[in-house]
Design goal:
With 199 residues, this protein is of the alpha+beta class. The chain contains seven helices and five strands, in the order αβαβααβααβαβ. It has helices at 4-11, 26-39, 56-73, 79-90, 102-111, 118-140, 155-161; strands at residues 18-19, 49-55, 94-101, 143-145, 168-179.
């Protein structure tokens, strides 16, 4: 029997064709993200996840500034493709910026020195769980999204423009919006090569 959540695992896809007219309001979307932030598990209940949700002009500004930074490092003959890619993100309704709060991680490293090297890893894993949780919740509400990683290229202007605390480390960016075109069918490796079962 397939549960609703199991079905969402199939529905959740990287959607690069998104628009700015989702059925949900900014308030409703913010509530969904807030719910995920509150209930996503973290190591030692550290609750290090931080998010910034950008709508409207702020959403557009983020991708415009990202494009400006990319132009500095992209070969001219490849910049048109980069422009198109960034334009597809900017066409969405908003962007979520995922951060991890570093002061708590440092404090835990001091408190539990035996696990010192693991806390940054667990922090990244916790952020990944949150990103996936938001992605699945969005899929449930027919909101398309993709996960992007433009750090450290975008870190400086992001911190300046949106007054990000120094202790917040930017991990990922998620542009989202209504789905304007379904993603192509995805191929899968044989599960017999990926799963071993004993007993």
């Amino acid at each position: 029997m397939t549960s609703n959540f199991a079905k969402l695992l199939e529905t959740r896809r990287s959607n690069y064709f998104i628009g700015n007219t989702p059925e949900l309001s900014k308030k409703d979307i913010s509530a969904l993200v807030s719910h995920a932030v509150k209930y996503t598990p973290t190591a030692f209940n550290s609750q290090t996840a931080r998010t910034v949700i950008l709508f409207g002009n702020d959403h557009q500004k983020f991708w415009n500034l990202t494009l400006s930074e990319l132009q500095k490092v992209t070969p001219p003959d490849r910049f048109a493709a980069t422009q198109n890619k960034i334009a597809s993100f900017a066409a969405g309704f908003g962007t979520i910026l995922f951060f991890e709060e570093q002061e708590t991680i440092t404090a835990l490293q001091k408190q539990f020195p035996l696990y010192k090297d693991n806390f940054p890893i667990w922090s990244e894993q916790g952020s990944a769980i949150l990103q996936f949780a938001v992605w699945c919740i969005f899929a449930e509400h027919q909101i398309g999204a993709s996960l992007q990683h433009y750090s450290p290229l975008v870190d400086t202007f992001t911190a300046k423009e949106w007054k990000i605390p120094d202790s917040w480390k930017l991990i990922a960016q998620m542009p989202f919006g209504n789905i304007t075109r379904s993603p192509e069918t995805k191929d899968f490796l044989p599960l017999k090569d990926r799963i071993k079962i004993y007993g």
